[in-house]
Design brief:
Elements: H1 24-48, H2 53-76, H3 81-94
């Protein structure tokens, strides 16, 4: 099993990537920045025939990290993320999706 460590909350020095008072707009701007970087790598691969799949994977993880940070903020504001994920999974199953792999996200 491979673990993806979401480093949003607790760096050794006590700082965080997102501040508690960050707005949804500021998080959205960070997400847009990361998606733009992912798009650049995808365009290099698709249009310029550059073999950069490791960069694509790294940028994908950056996008995931920002999304997990957003889920963390929502959780801190009282949203039941576990329940939301369960609803989402049921929606996908009803649409005919089948699980290939499972990604575990623990937000406490």
């Amino acid at each position: 099993m491979v673990s993806f460590y979401e480093t949003l909350r607790r760096h050794k020095d006590g700082t965080t990537n997102f501040k508690k008072d960050d707005t949804y707009v500021s998080i959205l701007n960070k997400a847009k920045e990361e998606v733009d970087e992912l798009c650049e790598e995808l365009f290099k691969y698709e249009l310029d025939n550059i073999d950069n799949k490791e960069n694509i994977a790294a940028e994908t993880l950056d996008v995931i990290q920002v999304c997990i940070g957003l889920l963390d903020k929502l959780s801190e504001e009282g949203v039941n993320i576990r329940k939301t994920i369960e609803k989402h999974n049921l929606k996908l199953l009803h649409r005919g999706w089948r699980y290939k792999k499972v990604i575990r996200i623990d937000i406490e």
